[in-house]
Amino acid sequence: MASNDSDPVIAISCYMQRAQWGVWDTEAALIPGDYVRMVAASGGIPVLLPPHGMTPAILDRVDGLLLAGGADVGAEEYGQDPHEATVSHPFRDSSEMMLLAAARQRSLPVLGICRGMQVVNVADGGTLIQHLPESLGHTDYQPAPGVYGEVTVTTEAGSLAREILGEATIAPCYHHQGIDRLGAGLRATGRSPEGLVETIEPDPAVNQTGDPADGGWLFAVQWHPEHDPDDDRVVRALVQAARRHVTGRGTRRAPN
Q1: Which terminus of the chain faces fewer neighbouring Cβ atoms within 10 Å, N or C?
Q2: Which residues are catalytic?
Q3: Name one Pfam family in it (predicted).
């Protein structure tokens, strides 16, 4: 595993579902290769965490957490009945909520991507718009099955989003849900032209206690930065934060 003078280990949450390869057609633990390639290209060591068999202690062995995209967060997690278009994996919800809480207790850097951003928001008491086409009147954020849309994101001055992305960026997106009410202690620091929340991060006005439970570096985006091999800024920011975390603590240890 990583040490002070080696590349940081980045844990990536992954799917557990049916897949096909070679002569096999069975359940598998998997993640699109884009995530793995970009973490590695950004200087991290990628490891996959399946949504079964995990305990908080696994995060004592890594230096950062990437909550990846995937199925919808279950509506019951934020007190709503599911929309007919909502497709969730409850076992993944519970696993990733646990991993997020454990990472924040340890002040591990956390990056949420697409579903991962929604997990972060719901974990802090926020809610989601369950089907954007009904509220927005279009499907631009998820044009067709397996087809990415494109979103322009404008960032807020003084935010981590501005530091990483500059004033604006264009990125690939693929989602039919979005943030409705923000979770406690979070702020929206990037939005689409029609106001949809595209980046969230801790609100410094709220998270000033120094309590490890407030977490360390946390950033989340609604789009899929891993899908654009020419723009690694978001994933590289996670790896750099993980490297700083390793350097700052000296040696890996469990929280008190």
Answers
A1: C
A2: 114, 224, 226
A3: Peptidase_C26
